[in-house]
Design a protein that fits this description.
Blueprint lengths: L1 E5 L8 E5 L2 E10 L5 E7 L2 H9 L1 H18 L7 H13 L2 H8 L7 H5 L4 H5 L3 H4 L9 H15 L6 H9 L22 H14 L18 H18 L5 H20 L19 E6 L4 E5 L6 H12 L6 E6 L4 E6 L4 E9 L8 E8 L2 H15 L14 H13 L1
Antiparallel strand pairs: 1-2, 2-3, 3-4, 5-6, 5-7, 7-8, 8-9, 9-10
Amino acid sequence: MRNIVFTRSSGWIPKVIHEDGQLKLMLAAGADANHEPREFTFPISEAHLAVIREDLARHLLLWSAVLPLCDAAGTRGRLDQDAAVALLDPVLLAPPADVDALFRHIPWDRSRPVAHGADIALLERGQVCQAMRAATEGANERRAQEYHANRRRAARGTVLGPLDAAILRYTGQYLHGATVPRRVPDAVDPALLPQVMRVVATAEQACAGMRIGLDPRRGHRATDKRDWDRMAATVDAAVRRAHPELVDDAVRTVSFLMCSEAADRSRSTPADDPEDHTDVGEGAKTALTFTDDKGGERTWRRDGPRTASGEFWEFVADRSAGDNEVFTIEDEEMGEGIQLHFYADSVARITTVRPGEAGSDPQYQVEYSLVDGIGGYRNMVSAFVRGGCAALDRHGPWTSDVAEFERARRRRDAR
């Protein structure tokens, strides 16, 4: 039977329980294989309980010292109880100078003291007992998160100035650089907000008119990496030129914000956006068949609700995968088509030289060309839809010599 002997108002601070005729410290830490919090216990004495009751600072320091042992237990391992018990006297009963010396030599979790109000400067100097004089039972987890974010930055040599920090807070990336950036002006000190907005305005002016297209080869929401990199480089250069005092983290978060917003605009734009490609022209197609390497097939007709380009790229986004990277557009009536090789950044155009007669196979002319990323593929598809294989002449050069084409492809890949 388990009875709670002592607990504090904050539910996560370790409790003292009476179980199986023993006093034990009980704490939740880590998670099991089902992501549920794990619970650990180890025995303590009445003398330890007396200090835990009366001294919040020592109680929190003991928690910090035991947490690495809980982490070491993983999702299903046992707590090293001997190691935990060995920490009790040095943390709870030793003089402050000895406690300070202990914490300079053992692994411990700094986030708990920081979250509960410890003086960070004193902690960093190794004066843990004095730092804990400011501790409270209530926790401020955001304070601990910011502390660890600053430690990570310091470990790679980055120190934020007031404007750097304000920019990271504005984009919501102060704590985690992997967070999708957004605009949070209320998170910024009002005195610094005008400076932040000048930096953002520099970035907006630098990338005005630029866009980041989607890349259907990688699904419905993937973006064109080349477009992204081009916009990021443009914004980075402009911001560094106008605001050379900013650290890399601040510059990167602004370019990330611009690119993320541009990508979101593309995702909300219909595939048949008239600004994309208009499927009209003298030789525009009236019916096309789309196929892939896995037996997928879709037919498009001009009297349908979508453009041929939009329908084809929707087909690609639905079907493209690591083992499905060859897509074909065929105009059966005209006897021509194009085959897109996403794995090789190349395309083949195929025209019927002589149709099959009296059981003989038709004769085709196949020509190959290299393609420059998803933008090049879009141009090829748009040109074919508007004017067939003849419209692809200006998107060459084209060659029917397979060996020469392979040499050209290897030269390009080597670069």
